[in-house]
Amino acid sequence: MKRLVLIDGKSVFYRGYYAMGALSLSDGTPTGGVYGFAAIAMEIVSRLSPTKVVVAWDSRTSTAKRRAIFADYKAGRHKPGEDFYAQIPLLQELVADLGWSFVEVPEYEADDIIGTLSRQADDSLDASGKCEWETFIISSDLDMLQIVDENTHMWRILKGFSDIQQIDVKEIEAKYGILKSQFLDLKALKGDASDNIPGVPGIGEKTAAKLLNEYGDLDGIYNNIDKISGATKTKLENGKESAYMSRDLAKIMFDAPVSLAEMPDFKFDCERMIKGLKKLEFKSLIRKFAGEEDIAIDDKKEVKTEAERLDREMVPVLHRMEKRGMLIDREYFAKLKQEYTKKVERLKEEIWELAGREFNVNSPIQLSEILFVDLGLPTKGIKKTTRGYSTGAKELLKLADLHPIVPKLMEYREAAKLLTTYIVPMPELADSEGRVHTTFTQDVTATGRLSSKDPNLQNIPVRTEEGRRIRTGFVAPAGRVLVSADYSQFELRLAAALAGDAKLIDDFNAGVDIHTKTAADAFGVPMDSVTKNQRRAAKVINFGILYGMSAKGLAEASGMSVAQAKEFIDNYFRLRAPIKKYLEKILQQAREEGYVETYYGRRRPTPDVKSANFVVRQAAERAAQNMPIQGTEADLMKKAMIAVDRALPEGAELVMQVHDSLIVECDEGLASEVSEILRREMESVAPELKIKLALEITVGKNWGEL
Fold it and tell me: Average of pLDDT values for 284-312?
């Protein structure tokens, strides 16, 4: 059977543009959209072996017929930047180099061209009377579901280019709970916000599906309108004209003036294809497709210039975030100030009572005397300084169970820090509108992570109730909300990808609970038999392993004995041999080459890994092992921020980046659209890493709810 591939060109190109927007030629010409398209092209050639390939494109007048029906059709769409249009000639060259057809027709959209050609393929029969074509539609546009039939499938691009879903008739009917033939009428009823097709106001997808199941189609619904009651009947009556107009708008036209018979067959020409990819400097795609060795293609320069490009493109994004700022509730902070001032005073008096006398609680020297002289707490294992025994946080933690004054001191320090660092200063730092404007910097951390200062909003405690109370004071204005998108298990996913740990990658991509799976494998028990303590130990080591966690450290964090922790770590490393090998390889590079680097070429010198001082050397080794993973994480977050910033509609703005999360402030009515944009752009930011990135998205009226 012959294979016809019909590509919704602009849809695929858009995905590449937003997912790979930072790419460009050495002369600065942007190529992100073309790269994404080329990546899909490689998949098509290798997986489908097509007979004909047609790239359908919207002409300048493609919406004319539908706008004659409804003037606001596709109104309000976010217009891409000039760098989008600058890439179209490059795309056309690539299509020509591939030997494919590039087709645009006045007054017909790409959907109509694809619909017409697929119908012609369906009607083309062989000598036995069977359809001689199997058709594949490549798009992210659900309008194409109208065309899917027994001979026509759809490849829907979901997340950048890392997740392609094949959709057939059964999938459509299962997803929507209707017959495939009813899909157009479903859209006529529920509308389509992306194309600004109104549908029947107030009728959602579930109600529309229920009506179609009961009455068959749009005509059947209105022919039986008297059998329908209540608010649904009123909505249908008021929206009848809109429903039929929406059906006309959504309906794909099958009469575009194009001929499948006139489209040339695709003849695979590897040399010509590689030549076209070389013109675009897509060396990684050439290596993947042609199987060439790395010493043959050196893409180091391309990768190295990427860290620089990211930092440069982040400047306007960060400027807009700083200028926008985050709104605070002044009244809330005033009440918090009163509460925490009283709390700090109360804790100080309780500490004095436990100490037996008054002293300066903030003085390390006086506190050391109270703890180790007056109260006689043990000094074994406590760090000693020139001024006496240390009273730092780590040392206090060692003493926490030995005297009630110690946890009280820890509570006092946290309350005092929150009061002086955040609660008191925030209202003073806010502008006349109540917005606080932090300053983001890209060049402070060695890993390339963003840092925040004046004030440092990234350092508000994340996992404590007190930190949540501070964040609750950062709010959305009336009529607006905050939307947070947080990468799930970001560092561990990147470690798996960078180390090439195929089993761990497969587990992540399959959506397996990674901590339960790790515990099951390490303890040698079925997943459904893993205890809470076993999962907790696995979780601790899954993250701690990236920071050189010892058996003692695992024992302290998990409640295991040191012997049990050592056995668990030994088992873990047998399971995670690729990660162990990767970490060892990083150390070797640090020692031999004097630097380590991220996936995108951001480098950090590592001179101290050769230090004669054991403590200095050990710290340098830990930093060297952390940097490629944390630095790659930072690079990807920057790529995600650039992509999200470009994709957000009017009425939505990035306002904060903290650790692995982004926060957007938007109009309430845009919350769902913004959530989808965040998921789409952030999960598809690194298709080249072959691991699915997952997000946790929350919406709230204040930061504390996120």
Answer: 58
Residue 14: its H or E element: helix 9-19
The C-alpha atoms of residue 23 and residue 15 are separated, in whole angstroms, by: 13
**Mean predicted lDDT score pLDDT of the chain:** 88
Helices (H), 510-576: 514-523, 532-544, 551-558, 562-575
Assigned domain for 156 exists? yes
**CA quadruple 557, 586, 683, 574: dihedral positive or negative?**
negative
Shared domain for 427 and 530, answered yes or no, is no
Residue 450 identity (one-letter amino acid):
L
Residue 308 — very low, low, confident or very high, per pLDDT cuts 50/70/90? Answer: low
Q: Which helix (H) or strand (E) holds 52?
A: strand 52-56
Q: DSSP H helical segments within 651-702, as ranges?
A: 671-683
Domain end residue (candidates: 623, 639, 665): 623
Q: Is 329 helix (H, G, I), strand (E, B) or coil?
A: coil
Tokens of 27: 């002369």
Q: In this structure, what are the phi and psi dihedrals at residue 164, rounded to the nearest 5 degrees?
A: -115, 125
Residue range 261-288: average pLDDT?
A: 82
DSSP 8-state code for residue 10: H
Question: What pLDDT was estimated at residue 305?
Answer: 54
Is residue 597 classed as helix, strand or coil in its secondary structure? strand
C-alpha distance from residue 600 to each of 311, 629, 643, 693 (Å): 12, 11, 17, 17
Q: Are residues 44 and 159 in the same domain?
A: yes
Average pLDDT over residues 23-31: 79
pLDDT at residue 85 is higher than 70: yes
- Here the tokens at position 263 are 């489209």
CA 536, 539, 543, 545 dihedral sign is: positive
Q: How many domains does the chain have?
A: 3
| Domain final residue, candidates 592, 623, 654 | 623
pLDDT number for residue 333: 97
pLDDT for residue 162 is more than 70: no
Q: What is the CATH number of the domain that holds 385?
A: 1.20.1060.10
Domain coverage including residue 502: 495-623
The C-alpha atoms of residue 314 and residue 450 are separated, in whole angstroms, by 10
153 plus 6 within the same structural domain: yes
Determine which of 33-47, 89-103, 255-269 has the lowest per-residue pLDDT on average: 33-47
Q: Encoding tokens for residue 197?
A: 């097709």
What stretches of 280-362 show up as alpha helix (H) in DSSP? 283-290, 300-324, 330-355
pTM of this structure: 0.58
Task: Read off the pLDDT band of 542 (50, 70, 90).
Answer: confident
What 3-state DSSP class applies to 255? coil
The CATH number covering residue 600 comes to 1.10.150.20
Contact 135, 159 (CB under 8 A): no
* Packing angle of the helix pair 88-98, 270-279 (nearest 10 deg): 160
- What is the C-alpha separation between 635 and 306, in angstroms, rounded? 9
In a domain, 311, yes or no: no
Q: What is the 3-state secondary structure (H, E, C) of 87-147?
A: CHHHHHHHHHHHCCEEECECCECHHHHHHHHHHHHHCCECCCCCECEEEEEEECCHHHHHC
Torsion (CA) 275, 280, 285, 291 in degrees, nearest 10? 30
State the average pLDDT over residues 642-648: 93
